[in-house]
């Protein structure tokens, strides 16, 4: 989840001065602003950031629901991985834990769970449209003023497997015309996508400059979310995984905050 502009301000001695409603509005505007920026940039420069989102039509309705369900399933490794990271006794991880005491975070966690879910959905849609929907294909060379190669995720809707995940690596499991992962990877343009995958993940980390540890973890999450797009060819998968992960992490943080003993004045 992208941090609001106020996040990097020095901690305040009076967190109560921050208005939760203002924090909610700011978070929504920032996250959705990223999605709007992706759509605008894509319309001006290409490629289309919505190219790997199935249409909400009767023909592709199964791919829509299949992608959302897969996104929920692929959230589990992210949550388990973060739980393991939090158990590490390292100074950087201890610093990461202390971010929960930041006035911005404590104010954010005062919001209702419904509001936190809304923020998570906006983060999933906005950030994935920008980083996986537009940035990855753009870096890969699928941009109007550059010589485009054949997209590594080119769709073949005649494949019986396309209804479920899409047309990425999973396609060969469900009947994709390519006979193996290696044949898919050997196609023209796949190396470009590998570089784009790495670069977009690093830039995703730089977009979350809360701390060095947070940068590294966010970049690794970017690697995973980019892998989901390459794996399935369906942008709804990383969108659903991203939004669900944020919602679960915010819920866990809210539960932890509520379980802390109240100190006597």
Properties at a glance:
single chain; 265 residues; mainly alpha; 0% strand; globular
Describe this structure in words.
- The protein has 265 residues and is mainly α.
- 60% of the residues lie in helices and 0% in strands.
- Mean pLDDT is 77; it is low at 4-16, 143-166 and 172-179.
- Helix 3 runs parallel beside helix 10 (236-259).
- The protein has ten helices and no strands.
SSE inventory with pairings:
Elements: H1 20-45, H2 61-73, H3 75-86, H4 91-98, H5 103-108, H6 113-139, H7 181-185, H8 190-206, H9 212-232, H10 236-259
Helix pairs in contact: 1-6, 2-10, 3-10, 6-8, 6-10, 8-9, 9-10
Low-pLDDT residue intervals, each spanning 5 or more residues: 4-16, 143-166, 172-179
Question: What's the gyration radius in Å?
Answer: 20 Å
The helix count comes to 10
Strand content: under 5%
Give the topology string: H per helix, E per strand. Answer: HHHHHHHHHH
Number of strands: 0
Largest sheet entry: none
Overall mean pLDDT: 77
Distance between the termini: 34 Å
The helix-and-strand class reads: mainly alpha
Overall helicity = 55-70%
Shape: globular
Brief synopsis:
Helices cover 60% and strands 0% of the residues. It has ten helices and no strands.
């Amino acid at each position: 989840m992208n941090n609001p502009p106020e996040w990097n301000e020095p901690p305040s001695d009076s967190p109560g001065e921050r208005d939760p409603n203002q924090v909610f509005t700011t978070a929504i505007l920032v996250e959705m602003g990223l999605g709007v920026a992706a759509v605008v940039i894509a319309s001006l420069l290409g490629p289309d950031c919505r190219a790997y989102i199935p249409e909400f039509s009767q023909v592709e309705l199964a791919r829509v629901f299949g992608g959302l369900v897969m996104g929920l399933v692929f959230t589990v490794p992210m949550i388990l991985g973060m739980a393991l990271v939090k158990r590490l006794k390292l100074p950087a991880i201890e610093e990461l834990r202390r971010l929960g005491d930041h006035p911005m975070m404590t104010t954010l966690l005062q919001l209702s769970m419904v509001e936190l879910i809304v923020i998570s959905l906006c983060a999933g849609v906005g950030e994935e449209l920008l980083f996986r929907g537009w940035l990855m294909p753009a870096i890969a060379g699928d941009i109007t003023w550059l010589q485009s190669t054949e997209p590594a995720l080119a769709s073949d809707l005649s494949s019986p497997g396309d209804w479920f995940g899409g047309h990425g690596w999973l396609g060969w499991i469900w009947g994709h015309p390519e006979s193996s992962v290696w044949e898919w990877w050997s196609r023209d343009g796949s190396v470009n996508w590998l570089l784009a995958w790495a670069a977009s993940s690093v830039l995703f980390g730089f977009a979350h400059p809360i701390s060095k540890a947070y940068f590294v973890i966010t970049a690794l999450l970017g690697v995973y979310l980019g892998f989901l797009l390459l794996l399935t060819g369906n942008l709804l998968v990383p969108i659903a995984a991203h939004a669900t992960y944020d919602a679960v992490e915010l819920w866990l943080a809210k539960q932890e905050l509520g379980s802390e003993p109240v100190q006597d004045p």
